[in-house]
């Protein structure tokens, strides 16, 4: 069976945190008693918690107060759904410092952090990780590539944190200037070809990691290793097939995590991401179980798009593809309606500005199509 981590620790954690609202919810939603779960076979009686179900629980208004009452919370963030994400203990809640250490971030480095600081947790995740590593941070957040390049030069940064696409755009503007030598990238797949180009043409060693707003760091690349090292200190990770059964070694399935954290103890949280295990490591992320997609680090959930289109009384098809130079591109085609209102509603729902919106009266059903080549298994 494809799982990573120590299952006995899961049983101990459930017993020790049985009074926490999120632990209790796992058994209530599954209609079973905690006393029934004594081994991995009975653990599977707990229904995985999907992002859609988690969003519905938040929209009901009862979940966040329960989480706040369940343990120490230092910050509250939000992600599309909406889902409210909370942060507990500094450093150990998100744990991304482990990924930065593996990527070679050390005391004395100067990093430009291009992840958002507004409402979403990505910027904070990276900043506190740098702090733990002794690395100075310029909190740039999202900006045009010209501003990014200007900042990299102005603060004499040797490290970059953000997405692959934005890094390449900044490098175009830099035109060989600056002293960037390392990069920590998330939210987009980084291929071995990408790494080779970054090192051969720009002298940058790039590493990537995989995580979620709910559970923090899940897995990260290490020097000389294939795939990603799972953070089993905090997580128990399962790979489940389409029927919800444990997949075998090397078989692709959904990543389901149990986050052994006193603030947000998620039991069998279904990430919606597809992966497989190989030699005790997580292979990476190779797409989604549903029609949800990630664009520029932001999840565009199908059910949110469907609700948006219904409220605007249209059908819509969201097309995600690659431009000729390999960058991500997004276009929404709708059956009619007020395009200005739809554009505004889309931004409100996802925090993304639609670069293109078209009217196509032949569209009869809402759908998401993602044809980006980097989703292919490599």
Automatic annotation (TrEMBL):
It comes from the Bacteria. The keyword Ligase applies. Keywords: Ligase. GO terms for molecular function: ligase activity. The keyword Transcription regulation does not apply. SUPFAM superfamilies: Acetyl-CoA synthetase-like. This is Phenylacetate--CoA ligase family protein. It comes from Geovibrio thiophilus. The lineage of its organism: Bacteria, Pseudomonadati, Deferribacterota, Deferribacteres, Deferribacterales.
